[in-house]
Amino acid sequence: MANILIAGCGDIGCLLGEQLSQQGHSVFGLRRNVDALPECIQPIEANLTTPIDHLPLNIDYVFYMASAGKYKDCAYYQAYVLGLKNLISALKEQSIKKLFFISSSSVFGQSEGEKVDESSPTDDSVFSTKRLLEGEAVALESNLNATIVRFGGIYGAGRTHLIDLIREGKAHCMEGVWSNRIHSEDCAGLLTHLLNCTEQDPSQVESLYVGVDNQPTLSCEIYDWLAEQLSAPEPDRKEPSEASRLMRSNKRISNAKVRALGYKFKYPTYKEGFLAFLTE
Predict the structure, then answer these.
(1) Domain extent listing, the chain
(2) CATH class of 3-152+183-212+253-266
(3) 67 phi and psi angles, rounded to 5 deg
(4) Which are the contacts of 261, defined by CB distance < 8 A and separation ≥ 6?
(5) Contact 174, 113 (CB under 8 A)
(6) N or C: less crowded end of the chain, CB within 10 Å?
(7) Cα separation of 224 and 231, whole Å?
């Protein structure tokens, strides 16, 4: 069994840590406040934006899962670039088998409903995607055999903003805009699967994957379906302006690559995921 470090161990990191612990791995969770970590994750209290000097020895795998607390350039730089550099420096004496860097599908800038996969071009014209891509480059250029995972829109336990808006009749959607989502439990499940594949045969795990469910869906379809489930008013519709189209991504992302690697989604579409969430 392996020693695994989850840096930036938030809600998805905790789900991942619980899955890995159940498989018999020793899991360490690094975050500023460790009080919320489950008992199966060994706590490391640290701030990634400052030098780190107290990591356990003999770490085998690292998941870098930091997130920016604010939508500001400095916050994105600290979360995705500086923090990663500090962690890599702290691990320089260790023989890490694999680094998994968690990024976002927002780095794909397509806005006309194009089909997108791992080979599609990215766009660094805004600070957020620029910093994400900068962090990806730091990971790939390190000596830690990195794999990048770009997640789509994450929903699940604790992420109730959209449901709250629809229930309150405050939601509106843009016609013709595609959405690419993934349930938080499938985020953790996919990362666990990638680790297991690496353990079995490192050569089969490539350097880049996108993490979305099986069904890109028009946003208005999701909003309408949720409103029906919640017995809420039908959400307002807006025709997207040219400016909003440029600012808002609009693409259909394929998950064929992760499915070819053998991952089976617990929630293959938004309906299964939201139904489970609403039932809870």
Answers:
(1) 3-152+183-212+253-266
(2) alpha beta
(3) -140, 155
(4) 193, 194, 197, 204, 205, 209
(5) no
(6) C
(7) 10
As a whole number of angstroms, the distance between CA 117 and CA 11 comes to 26
**Per-residue b/e over 131-157, b at no fewer than 16 CB within 10 Å?**
bbbbbbebbbebebbbbbbbbbbbbbe
Given a contact cutoff of 8 angstroms between Cβ atoms, the answer to whether 216 and 253 are in contact is yes
Rounded Cα gap, residues 266 and 280, in angstroms: 16
CA 13 to chain centre: 10
What pLDDT digit, counting tens, does each position of 144-162 carry? 999 999 999 999 988 989 9
238 vs 10: CA distance, rounded Å: 34
Residue 88 CA, chain-centre distance (Å), reads: 20
Chain segment 237-249, per-residue pLDDT in tens: 876 555 555 456 7
What percent of the chain is helix, strand and coil (3-state, nearest 5)?
40, 20, 40
DSSP letter, residue 239: P
Is the model's pTM score more than 0.90? yes
**Residues comprising the chain, all counted:** 280
